[in-house]
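Lecture notes, structural biology module. Today: joint structure prediction for complexes of two components.
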Amino acid sequence: MGDFDFAAIFDNLPFLMEGMKTTLLLTVAAVVGGIVIGTVLAIIRLARVPVLGRLAAAYVNFFRSLPLILVIFWLYFLVPLILGRPVGAFTSVLVAFVLFEAAYYSEIIRAGISSIRSGQVAAARAIGMTYSQTMRFIVLPQAFRAMIPVLLTQAIILFQDTSLVYVVGLKDFLVSAELIANRDQKLIEMFMFVAVVYFTICFAGSMLASRIQRKLST
Amino acid sequence: MQYNWDWGILFRDPYIWWLVDGLKWTLMIAMCAWIIAFFLGSALGIMRTSINPYLRFIGTVYVELFRNVPLLVQLFLWYFVFPELLPEDAGRWVKREMPLPGFTTTVWALGLYTASRVCEQVRSGIEAIGIGQRNAGRAIGLSETKVYIHILLPNAYRIIIAPLTSEFLTIFKNSSLALTIGVIELTAMTRQIEEYTFQGFEAFTAATVIYSLVTFTVMGFMLHLEKRLYVPGMIAAEK
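The predicted structure, tokenised, for the full assembly:
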């Protein structure tokens, strides 16, 4: 342990930063996509749209029963097949994450919407708002405010999950570090560094989430 | 979309046996890791609710450490880094001489990681019971240990059956990470079938169906169990 080579980390920082950029880009895009589709799924389920409601529920349960790695493989195989031309790993991985995370976000958002008291909906309808106006101006703004801590926690989980792009070799933070680790024979330094960086970001994120939680509940 | 369908491939020798073998490893990883996660997680949950501040502190540090590093990174740390930090002989044993190195490492990595999640469930179960039962137990002369064994834990487990089920299913799904260190479990097997036969659609469908079937079977069984074991008056079981 005494000969921990810090230089191996510092010399490769620009390369590692590039990897971190990919990781962050994937996280942000997947969070946004997941929340958008997740909201649609949640509203369809809560509005009890006849057939669509069932389908949305099936979608959520189906994706929640699968390992993320399998979904990544599926889309890595399917997206080029459907489009009829090769696409970069990033595109297919992003599609996989959005589809997968939408199922989890939908459950969070459904719980968030359900927690808004029905009096609010009744009041909005009573003053003449349509269903979509009620959702847009009354329910969703309140629901999302209350959900911020949980959404943030899910984003942290997603941030950690992006490391699984390793299986298709997309050059994210972990893969970049692994490349250097193998090239320079610096496995200890690189993997420790990766762990510390992930820990710092995720720990800070979860501290922030619980602070917001405390603020909202007072 | 150009594609030659051949669903029969899944039932042909040797591919069907590959699937069976893959499922076997997936289940073995999940079960073994679950045993570690359940017992260690329970111990940590007890520590986090204990009246001893040092035990509480250790529990908190464990949970934060294991929860905030991606599982795949943890797996690599155990597989590539941990043996290097050991004394030379022990390190060599872990790396080469230990039986089934990939499998064993995955089981431990997955077990230790999930323990942090089980801990949080056990803690929330114990906290849901409330301070009253704990005080009542102490008042009739039970020791702190006996309060846990006879009052808090039996009730807590019954309240948290649903979250514990989903933790088990998470382990089951996370066992697929083993393929990154060369364990040929179910997902890796289907990948292998795809590479051998170019029938990716069929191969991935097989894995998808198997994962879903196991998940829904376990969920159905546990829902039944939950109904039979629910603690009257506890909201968590009111479903």
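Point to remember: The mean pLDDT of chain B is 92.
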